[in-house]
Design a protein that fits this description.
Layout (H helix, E strand, L loop, with lengths): L4 H12 L8 E4 L3 H13 L3 E5 L5 H10 L4 E3 L4 H5 L3 E4 L8 H8 L3 E3 L1 H6 L6 E5 L4 H14 L4 E5 L5 H4 L6 E5 L2 H4 L9 E4 L13 H9 L7 E5 L3 H4 L8 E4 L7 E6 L2 E6 L2 E5 L8 H16 L4 H10 L8 E6 L2 E5 L6 H9 L5 E5 L12 H7 E6 L4 H8 L5 E3 L3 H11 L5 E4 L12 H15 L9 H4 L3 E2 L1
Helix pairs in contact: 2-3, 7-12, 7-13, 12-13, 17-18
């Protein structure tokens, strides 16, 4: 539910010091989140200005058309503008280390984010989901479970619809995916249930180190709601707070929600109760069993009906570009996991297979240590096809432990992978890197992979010519 406007304004003042009469507010960054913040503030009657580092963009024009005579400062951030503000509401895409922001903080300006505004605007229970890998799958899946259980649910945050655009008087549950960038500027979140699914190296170009990254993720547990803990991840397990209501999940050991055997069949279980056979889970890979258990645990924490949750789980076929089966050609299965934009996601995908696969990887490593990939690559891959900005870093880390092929385009990578594959193999695009070095986004990367794969159906799978000549194998 969305609260009465006057109540929201009172809460914003009490919790964040936002005074509709006196606060000097700058909304920093005008992407999807920044646009939602500006619209939210305008609807409440707040005065504010917007600062965006781009000189001009269509979204600036759209904002001015939507809200009328809106002041937008474009281009390089103005240090004086920021330092004279009482509040900077900073979009997650803007680093807090930005010089103008850091100077403003040192002068006493308060930094807040969209999730604080959201938390002050509803009394409906919030389920907050973060982690390095699987958060989009778990968020979407839990949303489907809530719908199946008869809830009027808003699903979004870092995924799909911006949190503030979800606010609705009819909603009686919100399920939010939250990034470390959203959480680092959040102080008011008090989710009814929250989880950090896992921690692995990611966004080290924005965080000082993995310890700092984990600290920001841990902020999802602000408040006194139910902590949903992955006992298989030692970093997450250390986040548990004594005295807090807790639900656990595991694919490796006994937990509140876990995998258990009955008559030699594996089941997803809640305590001693078998919920459904693991074989009926439509998602590929063992890591998706962990995602399913996390969603079940979160749903149980907010009292969703288990039968409805299992029904939704059996019907859930996953997200585009996340372990998505493209096709089978000549008994070779092609799988699109382009959303695997960090090392942990790639490792999880590889560990989901019992046989060795041909891996297509590479892109922008975002400062991660690619050596963390090597034990899993050695165990789970037949060969690796590399491309993108940091292909050389991955090649150096692999150091000859498996055959490596270098390509400059996705088309070449698919052709080379097809030349290596034999009947029964799987070719997995799971880049372990961001996509913006070569593509618009990870969706564009996955789409180009799928298009190249489908083009194989009409080809003779001949790798002779330019594509194979441009590849190089290290043995």
């Amino acid at each position: 539910m969305k609260l009465n406007q006057n109540i929201i304004i009172e809460r914003l003042k009490a919790s964040l010091g936002l005074d509709i009469a006196t606060s000097k507010i700058v909304v920093v960054g005008l992407g999807v989140t920044g646009f939602s913040i500006a619209t939210y503030l305008a609807n409440l009657g707040f005065d504010f200005v917007v600062a965006d580092s781009r000189e001009q963009s269509s979204i600036i024009s759209q904002l001015q058309e939507t809200l009328g005579n809106m002041t937008v400062f474009s281009g390089a951030f103005d240090e004086d503008l920021f330092s004279n503000a009482s509040h900077l509401i900073v979009s997650p895409g803007i680093p807090l280390t930005e010089k103008a922001i850091a100077k403003a903080v040192s002068n006493g300006t308060k930094i807040i984010g969209d999730i604080d505004l959201f938390a002050c605007s509803t009394d409906a229970p919030i389920v907050a989901i973060t982690g390095s890998n699987g958060k989009s799958t778990v968020t979407t899946l839990l949303g489907e479970m809530a719908k199946a259980a008869g809830k009027r649910v808003g699903v979004g945050g870092n995924l799909g619809v911006a949190a503030l655009d979800l606010l609705d008087e009819s909603a009686n549950l919100y399920v939010l995916e939250l990034s470390s960038f959203q959480l680092e500027r959040t102080s008011q979140l008090n989710a009814a249930a929250a989880t950090v699914l896992n921690i692995s190296a990611d966004h080290l170009d924005r965080h000082a180190d993995i310890a700092d990254y984990a600290v920001q993720k841990q902020r999802v547990f602000i408040g006194d709601g139910v902590m949903v803990i992955n006992v298989d991840d030692p970093v997450v397990l250390d986040m548990h707070e004594k005295g807090r209501s807790t639900v656990t999940f595991s694919i490796q050991t006994i937990a509140d929600f876990c995998i258990g055997k009955d008559n030699d069949l594996e089941y997803l279980k809640h305590g001693e109760k078998a919920l459904m056979p693991l074989s009926e889970l439509p998602l590929e890979g063992r890591h998706n069993a962990a995602n399913a258990l996390a969603a079940l645990a979160l749903g149980a924490a907010v009292d969703l009906d288990e039968q409805a949750m299992c029904k939704a789980l059996k019907a859930f076929n996953g997200l585009p570009h996340r372990m998505q089966r493209v096709t089978e050609i000549a008994e070779v299965t092609w799988v699109n996991d382009s959303k695997a934009t960090n090392i942990g996601a790639c490792i999880a995908a590889l560990q989901g297979y019992e046989h060795k696969v041909i891996l297509i990887a590479g892109g922008d490593a975002k400062g991660a240590d690619m050596r963390d990939l090597i034990p899993t690559i050695k165990e789970k891959t037949k060969a690796v096809v590399l491309m993108g900005k940091d292909a050389e870093l991955i090649e150096q880390a692999i150091n000859g432990c498996v055959p490596v092929h270098n390509c400059s385009t996705m088309q070449q990578a698919v052709v080379v992978a097809a030349s290596i594959a034999t009947g029964g193999d799987t070719v997995l695009l799971s880049p372990a890197c961001a996509s913006l070095d070569q593509y618009k986004n990870y969706q564009d990367r996955g789409d180009q992979f799928a298009q190249a794969v489908m083009g194989l159906a009409d080809s003779n799978h001949n790798c002779d010519g330019a594509a194979s000549r441009s590849s190089r194998m290290i043995v």
